Amino acid sequence: MARSRSRRFTIRATWNRGRSVRSCLTSWTRIASCSDSGPHDHRRTLVAVERETAVREPVTPAKGGALGRTFSSLRVRNFRLFIGGQVLSGIGTWMQWVAAPWLVLELTGSGVALGIDTALASLPILLVGAWGGVLADRFDNRRLQLGTQIAYALLAALLFALDATGVVRVWMVYAISFATGIVTAVDMPTRQSFYLEMVGPEDLTNAMSLNTATFTGTRIVGPVIAGAMITTVGTAPVFLANALTYLAVVAALLAMRTAELHPRERATRGRGQVREGIAYVWRSPGLRRPMLLMAVVFLFSFNFAVLLPLLAVRSFDGDAGTFAGLLALMGVGSLAGSLVMAGRSANASTRALGGLGLALGGLSLLLAVAPSLPVAWALMPFVGAAGIAFAITGNATLQLTSTGELRGRVMALYTVIFIGSTPIGGPIAGWVGEHIGPRVGLAGGGAIAVLAAVGTLVALARDRSQPLSDRRTARSWPGVQPPPRDADPR
User: Fold this and answer.
1) All domains in the chain, ordered by first residue
2) Is the pTM value of this prediction over 0.85?
């Protein structure tokens, strides 16, 4: 039968005790190939076909038009509870992100000490981040989230006690920052996987976008509150307030209806599970391509926190206010981009990620040659929107492409490249900005993003030009079950 012909094949997949039934349209040649395997492989392949169509399947528009689509995931009670807790917790987190560096500066007066504190908070993600994904795959994510939130609260309370009693020393702050990084190495892949359990695949991108918008919005409120508290009562009460905000997340997690969570397969205990996760990503084109693209972009093109201060001072003869203005406009763009992504019914894909990588790289190149400060101001909201859309799309693509029993490890690798790239890419960008110029740093990062995005899109186009049988064979490498979802990488 010709490949162009297709037959409707219905796959019934039960989500949460039979809540929904999904239909998909797939090519007859793929369905025919299922008959070549045994009963177990037949069932596994059908599940894989359902997963492959999940990202590309048209999403039924939510009631209420564009506004309804923007907030569609809030229809889910469990997610409403979660996002409510995140609002308070996000404010507390940003408060501590202001107070902790200020405390280090008060104790040492050293910029190097600030850099050490930041590096220690990120280092555990590089060292043990992948093992955090193993925990996310093996255990109940809601309970793991409870554990990480309680751990965050205890660490913040400890810092409050040390500061309030006057016994705090900089090495104590370092130790707490390192311990917080260890908790983050478990928290991030667990939380990323938990989104899908709360809302299901249809609302995943929307839920992640709303959570990002919430975090971006609290970035505006938290530092303002922290600044007022530090100038009036000192840093210690800020740490106490942050510890208390975690209780909102704990209460939300305890109030969730576990019967309404979308079930997932859990990995069993075994040796080599980290290697298994890395091999799964590498041998799956639908995961390897977006992961490599994000690794390159995050490493070389997401260093605005390092380059923007230099751009403000050296290129535009500005001061701290100039830098703050650039950063604020970028934050406005990030918030707007998050809300736009939440309202889109389009599905996440490697192709969309490549397009956003092109946009981010192009905007970075334009910023590098901005002739005046007003032009840079005009560009910053678009840079912020493109950056946040790139991160959200990449995250959603990985989650919807990966299988349930390996999703935690996939998201742990995402966490490693997203946060773990900072201690590597930041110093490189800083050296270039210091010795050659911030414009060169921005232009170099933009050019690298463009080249990486073009390479990804070319690889996708080449894959589409292959005969279907060759593509199926290429995706049936040993060690990768079920096959990845990139047969039609649009």
Assistant:
1) 6-54 (no CATH), 72-264 (1.20.1250.20), 274-490 (1.20.1250.20)
2) no
